[in-house]
Write a structure and sequence with these properties.
This protein folds into 2 domains: 84 residues, Translation factors (Elongation Factor Tu (Ef-tu), domain 3, Beta Barrel), CATH 2.40.30; 159 residues, 3-Layer(aba) Sandwich (Rossmann fold). It is 21% helix and 37% strand. It contains 6 helices and 17 strands. It starts with a strand and ends with a strand. It binds flavin-adenine dinucleotide and FE2/S2 (inorganic) cluster. The site of FE2/S2 (inorganic) cluster (FES) has 12 residues, from loops.
Amino acid sequence: MSRFQMLEVSSITEEALDTTTLRFDMAEVARPGQFVMVWVPGVDEIPMSLSYMGDVKGVTVKAVGEATRALAAVSVGELVGVRGPYGNGFDLPEGRVLVVGGGVGMAAVMPAAESLGTKADMVIGARSAKDVTFLSRAEAACSRVEVSTDDGSMGFHGNAVQLSGELMDEGRYDAVLACGPEVMLYFLLNLCRERGVPCQLSLERYMKCGAGLCGSCVINGRRVCAEGPVFHGDELVTMNEFGRYRRDPSGRRMPI
Ligand SMILES: Cc1cc2nc3c(=O)[nH]c(=O)nc-3n(C[C@H](O)[C@H](O)[C@H](O)COP(=O)(O)OP(=O)(O)OC[C@H]3O[C@@H](n4cnc5c(N)ncnc54)[C@H](O)[C@@H]3O)c2cc1C
Ligand code: FES
């Protein structure tokens, strides 16, 4: 059951540029890929993937605007409001799995990669070396970890989809799991379709209630907070808004 709780932040870790993990005791059972709504008192409530499971859960926040900056500035011992967990999470597939995390999308896929363990290879996509998140955590969990950076400052010079294509050239995967910017997910879906590999992609859409009530997160009639945030490739190919349109806070459809 999802309930609202005020939880004390027990530790804070700097993960990468402007990217911070906050941990807190939260007993609710969660699946990899689920998210919580985090309320920063006096500021706003925002959706955050659970980047750590177990009793000491965590969220990993990239400071991009008012609420994320305020969350990243919280100190150990301060209280934040947490509702959830919400959403469906990933179905953990059998066989060899390629897990792809773009930017702070790593927060959503890292627990799935840890659950899969050595069945998983991982691609970490980032703009630059200073933005790479969870590299040592991924190396401890997965069989193989490769990094792509847009500027070539670490690993493969290019994007996470190009690097995923190279790994697929080297060996067969039975499934792909991913989270990241929607444009990355759009091209990754095309790659998976070309190679005949089933995929599950976690979307980030504007959310207000997080609990399936307000409709602000809808894409092609599907509520990302309730029927998602993880969608199977078969379903995404039927959604003509995927990779093309998003909704702003007033609900207006805007090109991505
Ligand atoms: C299911 C889900 C899981 C997420 N997990 C994480 C996570 O683990 N770590 C993380 O750093 N971020 C995550 N996000 C994105 C995060 O919620 C937004 O960055 C945050 O809400 C922006 O709020 P702001 O006030 O800081 O920025 P704003 O000033 O409101 O906006 C800054 C930018 O973020 C976009 N944005 C604003 N609100 C949202 C929203 N509610 N959802 C998506 N994009 C938004 C805006 O279009 C703009 O480009 C997740 C979003 C969703 C939907
Ligand atoms: S955010 Fe309200 S229905 Fe999804």
